[in-house]
Amino acid sequence: MTTTTQEIQKVEDQAVEGVENKRDREVFSPRADIFETGDVFVVVADMPGVAEDSVEITLEKNVLTFKGQIETPEREGFKLAYGEYREGDYERSFTLSEGIERDGIEATVKDGILRLTLPKSKEAAARKIPVVAG
């Protein structure tokens, strides 16, 4: 694993045993990209069809989990004869290292794209060590 991705480790995509899906629909693991800048990590996840008020983000025991639900409109007056598009909800988890400042995590959703900003803790930030002639 490279040093840029050591701070955030992916939890294997999995169906969590014992977790009940309260909605009778499929749950997808959204694709995500992780970017690193000098003082933050940014996670960008695609969750098409998810509204801003349908996203839930939790942090428990170093595991950051985000979920998004899609509200399917009622289709009256016709019956689907053939469909290729599958609808479902989204859920994904990542394990955070100690190098992430928990209280500074921010999230935004726009047009079905979730953006999480994970600031690095002050202790984990890279710094230059001065050399003194001695």
Write the layout of secondary structure elements.
Elements: E1 8-10, E2 26-28, E3 32-36, E4 40-46, E5 55-60, E6 63-68, E7 88-96, E8 106-110, E9 113-119
Parallel strand pairs: 2-7
Antiparallel strand pairs: 1-7, 3-4, 4-9, 5-6, 6-7, 8-9
Description:
With 134 residues, the protein is an all-beta fold. Helix content is 0%, strand content 38%. Strands 1, 2, 5, 6 and 7 form a 5-stranded mixed β-sheet that branches. Strands 3-4-9-8 form a 4-stranded antiparallel β-sheet, with no helix packed on it. Strand 3 and strand 4 form a beta hairpin. The protein is elongated. The two termini are 37 Å apart.
SS elements, strand count:
9
Instruction: Give me the strand/helix succession.
Output: EEEEEEEEE
Q: Note the main sheet.
A: 5 strands, mixed
**Which shape, going by the Cα principal axes?**
elongated
Any low-confidence stretches, pLDDT <50, length ≥5?
1-7, 9-20
Termini separation comes to: 37 Å
Q: Roughly how much helix do the residues carry, as a percent range?
A: under 10%
Mean of residue pLDDT values: 81
Keywords, separated by commas or semicolons:
five-stranded mixed sheet; 0% helix; 38% strand; four-stranded antiparallel sheet; 134 residues; mainly beta; disordered N terminus
In short:
With 134 residues, this protein is mainly beta.
